[in-house]
Write a structure and sequence with these properties.
heterotrimer; A mainly alpha; B mainly alpha; C mainly alpha; A: mainly alpha; 2 domains; three-stranded antiparallel sheet; C: mainly alpha; 3 helices; 85% helix
Chain lengths: 167, 112, 84
Amino acid sequence: MDTLKRRLLDFVIYFALWLLLTWSLDWQGVVVGAILAVLFALALSGLLPKGAERLFSPVRWFWAIMHLLSLLFWIIVANFDVLYRVLHPNLPIRPGIVKIKTTLKSDEAKAFLANSITLTPGTLTIDIIDDWLYIHWINVHESLEDAEAITRDIAGRFEVTLRRVFD
Amino acid sequence: MSSQIGLVPIILISTGVAFDLVGALGLIRLPDVYNRLQAATKCVTLGTFLVLIGVLVHSGWNAMGIKALLAAIFVLWTSPTGSHALARGAHIAGVRLWEGTVVDKYKEDTGR
Amino acid sequence: MTVILFLLIIGCFMCLYRVAKGPTPPDRAVAIDTIGVMVVGICGVFGVVTGQDFYLNIAIAWALLAFIGTLALAKYLEGRGFDE
């Protein structure tokens, strides 16, 4: 995708954000918003990462929505999990930091995987080094030798959808 | 006081506030930084998200609702990112884990 | 709605307890971050109670500032060693 198209896309995004935030079609406001959007699109380097043409693929959007739905479900499960652990008188936790290897390639996919892992039951991403994710797990229940089982338990449910969105 | 508040928004907002309180309670009860971060991030993120969605349902698609939706998406996006940064910073600064911790692969690999 | 606001303020005070007591600086940073996210919710509830939409502007600005502040705190923590 060439530079001009990218700048144009940036302009559209900034302008849409302006319209949403002001929420009026008063002509003075719209003109100011357009001028500011042009300035931002020219002055700042690109807003979107490389490969932005993936934005225009409906299949990817479908899988993105699927991912969000499953994420929402797991967030709610995670909250009841925390509720149980916090209100239980003996605090049933067995924390530890484990590492898992992800099969996702692009940086955006890894970032989204890390965020999703943080919001799901009992896990918190601490760092990403190359393909390895370091994860604080509040209740380590797999045997620690079995790296495959740990990976499947923590990341398996999101990698399926995220691979279809980003890779 | 402006208009009456419907049933759905009141349910959403009360659930959100309940989760916020659970997160704050976890912040007090759990033993070390990383466990506290877990409880605080998950519960407070969903709690605030539900409160803002409640505001959206209450006001409908006008200026207030759109702003609430944007704030909700922003919170859902940035709150986990902030907690990675804090967890990494705490680990690099050398905050010890709770004595019941089973394993620390990060320390083994990076030596920090 | 008054009850809900009261409960949210109670939650903020619970976080403040952790800020005051927290044994290490990262504990305090976590609690401050949590308060920041809760205040966004409080602004939303204020918007519903008063029926005025500028409270939501405050909420968005507050969310941005809290995020940037958290990142700055985390970077600051990385550069220092704390023993207890």
